[in-house]
TrEMBL record:
<feature type="domain" description="Pirin C-terminal">
    <location>
        <begin position="282"/>
        <end position="387"/>
    </location>
</feature>
<dbReference type="Pfam" id="PF02678">
    <property type="entry name" value="Pirin"/>
</dbReference>
<comment type="similarity">
    <text>Belongs to the pirin family.</text>
</comment>
<protein>
    <recommendedName>
        <fullName>Pirin-like protein</fullName>
    </recommendedName>
</protein>
<dbReference type="InterPro" id="IPR011051">
    <property type="entry name" value="RmlC_Cupin_sf"/>
</dbReference>
<dbReference type="InterPro" id="IPR008778">
    <property type="entry name" value="Pirin_C_dom"/>
</dbReference>
<feature type="domain" description="Pirin N-terminal">
    <location>
        <begin position="176"/>
        <end position="229"/>
    </location>
</feature>
<dbReference type="InterPro" id="IPR003829">
    <property type="entry name" value="Pirin_N_dom"/>
</dbReference>
<dbReference type="InterPro" id="IPR012093">
    <property type="entry name" value="Pirin"/>
</dbReference>
<feature type="domain" description="Pirin N-terminal">
    <location>
        <begin position="108"/>
        <end position="154"/>
    </location>
</feature>
<dbReference type="InterPro" id="IPR014710">
    <property type="entry name" value="RmlC-like_jellyroll"/>
</dbReference>
<dbReference type="Pfam" id="PF05726">
    <property type="entry name" value="Pirin_C"/>
</dbReference>
Length: 397
């Protein structure tokens, strides 16, 4: 080991604190210790570097390649739980395209529930998407034994078509779609009258009997949905009543690109004020592109979806998309998942109800539990009794 001269700064500093000899001994001892430590450090440095390298590799793998560390089973189950938060998600068990047919007086409907392919879906008897223009409509007619729910929709049409403008310019303002408001008037033999507009709901419990009319009150096509819900045998002869909500009074909620109008039931923690004689949920969802929905549905209830506009994936992520005017009957489970992977909004109605598990006998506008009860309803209407006392003297304006 080389020696330092007495003139070096280190020795000068040590000499000031003590004598030169003692300082020299301290310095030499210090150098021996340093040399020993250096030799020891040199021996352990490769092992330390290797350990640090291994730690770095592990940390990098954890942050950059988590699937290589997690088991494939736990990864897939976690992903499934995140995408579909139901123990038993409902899947589509039947898909029906609703075709146009004539109904009432010159009206056109697309019937899904109540048609040939889905005769009924307890407690649902019928779902029509109706399109009506003056003077067509649904003039005076009776009901007994169930409820009708009328929900008015807007009508999207090209402005140039609405104003009868002949235009060949591809991108003129007249080609911009507009939403035209629907208007329907209602009258019944008890003196009840009302007008329902786009977004309004009329929930009518016919009970023991109603005679009424439903007619368009504005020019152009009026569109809406009408849902028939069966009543239990104990409720079929209750007094008629109405629940009518304007659009502004319907419960609404919005979350993560999904908006819902809650006609009956609950969604996103918001509940409708409508009382349902037969336990029912009925909702109008609009989903923006890229959004997804997970809506709980009570187990044991029957349910279906009717697509109003757009295209979406229903039930499971790998399912084929379904488009407008399709009715999707859902299987058993505790909730429905929907994905909008298209580039346009998706709008659909979701309905679910507690099955009554009772016989259903239907003759036109009468729905009872036996053929004898249907015969009785027809006689009561004809002779004006048991709820139809005002029928023979009444006609709508």
């Amino acid at each position: 080991m080389p020696r330092h001269s007495a003139a070096s700064p280190i020795y000068t500093a040590l000499a000031r604190l003590a004598n030169f000899n003692s300082g020299r001994r301290v310095l030499l001892a210090s150098r021996k210790t340093s040399s020993s430590s250096a030799r020891s450090s040199a021996k352990t440095r490769p092992f330390l570097c290797l350990a640090l390298f291994r730690i770095l590799v592990v940390v990098t793998a954890v942050f950059l390649f988590p699937p290589a560390i997690m088991s494939s089973s736990s990864s897939s189950s976690s992903a499934a739980a995140a995408s579909v938060p139901f123990q038993s998600p409902r899947k589509v068990v039947k898909k029906v395209l609703s075709l146009s047919q004539s109904e009432g007086q010159g009206a056109t409907v697309r019937r899904s529930i109540g048609g040939h392919e889905v005769r009924n879906l307890d407690p649902f008897l019928l779902l029509d998407e109706f399109s009506v223009s003056k003077p067509a409509g649904f003039p005076d007619h009776p009901h007994r034994g169930f409820e009708t729910v009328t929900y008015m929709l807007d009508v999207r049409i090209p402005a140039c078509s609405a104003s009868s403008i002949s235009c060949s310019v591809p991108f003129c303002l007249h080609h911009v779609d507009i939403a035209r408001k629907g208007v329907f008037t209602h009258q019944d033999f008890s003196g009840h009258t009302g007008t329902i507009r786009t977004g309004d709901v009329q929930w009518m419990t016919a009970g023991r009997g109603i005679v009424h009319s439903e007619m368009p009150a504005a020019d152009g096509v009026q569109k809406g949905l009408q849902l028939w819900i069966n009543l239990a045998s104990k409720d079929k002869m209750i007094e008629p009543r109405y629940q009518e909500l304007e659009s502004k009074d319907i419960s609404q909620a919005e979350k993560d690109g999904v908006a819902v109008r809650i006609i009956a039931g609950e969604a996103f923690g918001v509940r409708s004020p409508v009382y349902t004689q037969t336990p029912t949920m009925y909702m109008d969802f609009t989903m923006q592109p890229g959004s997804q929905l997970h809506q709980p549905i009570p187990e044991g209830w029957n349910s279906f979806v009717y697509i109003i506009e757009g295209e979406g994936v229903f039930g499971k992520e790998g399912a084929a998309p379904a488009s407008a005017h399709h009715c999707l009957v859902l299987g058993a489970g505790d909730g429905l998942s929907v994905w909008n992977r298209s580039g346009a909004p998706l709008r659909f109605a979701l309905a679910a109800g507690q099955p009554l598990n009772e016989p259903v006998v239907q003759q036109g506008p009468f729905v009872m539990n036996s053929r004898a009860q249907i015969q009785q309803a027809m006689e009561d209407y004809y002779y004006g009794r048991n709820g139809f006392e005002k029928a023979s003297q009444w006609s709508s304006a």
